[in-house]
Structure formats: structure tokens, C-alpha cells
Amino acid sequence: MCIISLHFQDHAQYKLIIAANRDEFYERPTKEAGFWDDAPELLAGRDLERMGTWLGITKQGRFAALTNYRDPTNEHPNKNSRGQIVTSFLTGGTSTTDFLKELRKRKDDYNGFNIIVGTVDELYYYGNRQTDIVKLNGGTYTVSNHLLNTPWPKVEKARTMLQKYVTTHEEIDVDALFEQLAYREIAPDESLPNTGIGMDLERKLSPIFIKTDGYGTRSSTVLLINQDNEVTFIERTYNEGSFKKENKFTFRIK
């Protein structure tokens, strides 16, 4: 997952609003979102290479979503799968704070990551390139492949669009959020970060929706949880930048 925007505890109708894109190599095998056979309470897509996930929610209201932290000089192929962090929280029963404190002790077992984790009523952010575990107050947040709310062009654009929309609309149109996730404008060179991948690739990865040769946005997810704990989870999948399929799930948190 390369960008996650959320509006939390600051809307008349919804406790939590999520709009997120997962970017990945096109050849990496992936299962569309659904309730897992081996974890029937868990709704998420699945990475079939390492069997973890990037974003999911349970029928009990546990939520987690993860992005990679871009640091090509410090990537090690033999480290633990980051997708297993999400799966471990969602299928476990440990409190969020205890889970994150234990994860922080093992932070060097993983390549760089950011995680938004908790319940629909209490969310936290942690990234293993910093030390603090941050409780999220009400408001709008975006994380991509650096720290939370790092002012990269795509992060600023995604957060601004989501904040403007949800603070001016009592009813949320999921198509409007998917339109935000489909934003493909390339940022100007002078505003791009330098993460060690070269200017050409920085440019190609600067849109909210990415399409390059061999790599890009594989799925977009909109998650809405209203004040009555009714969940709407919609995933749209893509094949090399072209729309493929939509899956929609609704349930009430137990």
C-alpha cells in the first residue's frame, strides 16, 4: 500500500473514512478482498507471495493498514514480511498499545514501514524509522512512503482533497473518493523528494495513482464506518492501470 488517507472522529455521519491505494509490481500474485478462509472474521485482500495483507478490518472492528517506507539503501531481502504485521494484529487479541510496544522492540526485524492500527474508536500511528507511537486525534491524515503527513506533493494533495470533501459533505459519495484515488497528475520536479531512486522514478511515483511499466496501483479501497458501526468496504482492482473489478462488503461491527 503506497498511500493511505483517513478522516477520523470528525464527521457527523462517519467515525472513520479511509481512501487508500496499494501499489505493487503487476506480476506479484494477489487475491482480491474477501473474508479469509483461515481467518473468517478478517476482511482484506491478500498478498499470495508472503500471505500477508496491506489493509484490513475485522468483524470486531480491529483495523490496520500499512505502507512501506522508501529507503533503497536500507532494504534487506531476508527480513520479515511487513504484511504479516497487519495480519498479526488483525487476527490477534492484544491491545493496540501492547501490540505496538512489542512491535517497536522488533522494529529492526523489518524493512521500513508505517502502520495505522487500532479500532474504529481509537487509532495509532507507528513507523519503524522513528521511535514514537502516536495516538491519532480527530482530523485528516495521509501517509505514503515516508512518515505520517510528510509534505510530499502526493501526500499534500491527497490529504487536502479528502479533508475538503468530507468537511463539506454530510453524505459521502464513494465515487468521489475513488476519483481522488485515481488522480494521476505528475508533480513538478522542483517539489519532488529525493529518496535515492533517481529523478525519473521519483517523477513516475509522484501521482496518487501510479502506472509505470511493471509497477503501479493494483487496488483502491474506500472504507466507511458510520456512527452506528456499520461498515462499507469497497475495493476496486486494476490491471496495469485499467479498471478490472469492484468488490463491496457491508456488515455491522459486533
Main β-sheet, in a few words? 7 strands, antiparallel
Number of strands: 14
Query: Helix share of residues?
Result: 10-25%
CATH class, named Alpha Beta
Global geometry: globular
CATH fold-level topology: Penicillin V Acylase, Chain A
Poorly predicted runs are none
Structural class designation = alpha+beta
Rg over alpha carbons: 17 Å
Estimated share of beta-strand residues: 35-45%
In DSSP terms (H or I, runs of 4 or more residues), the helix count works out at 5
Kindly give the count of domains: 1
Order of helices and strands: EEEEEEHHEEEEHHHEEEE
Characterization of the model:
Pfam families: TANGO2. The chain has 254 residues and is α+β, with helices and mostly antiparallel strands. It has a single domain (3-252), classed as Penicillin V Acylase, Chain A (4-Layer Sandwich). 19% of the residues lie in helices and 40% in strands. The chain has helices at 83-91, 96-105, 153-166, 174-181, 199-204; strands spanning 3-8, 14-25, 30-36, 39-47, 55-58, 62-68, 113-119, 122-127, 133-135, 139-143, 211-212, 215-226, 230-239, 242-252. The strands form 2 sheets. Strands 1, 2, 10, 11, 12, 13 and 14 form a 7-stranded antiparallel sheet that branches. A hairpin with a 7-residue loop joins β4 (39-47) and β5. The longest helix has 14 residues, at 153-166. It is globular. The relative contact order is 0.20. The model has no long low-confidence stretch (mean pLDDT 97).
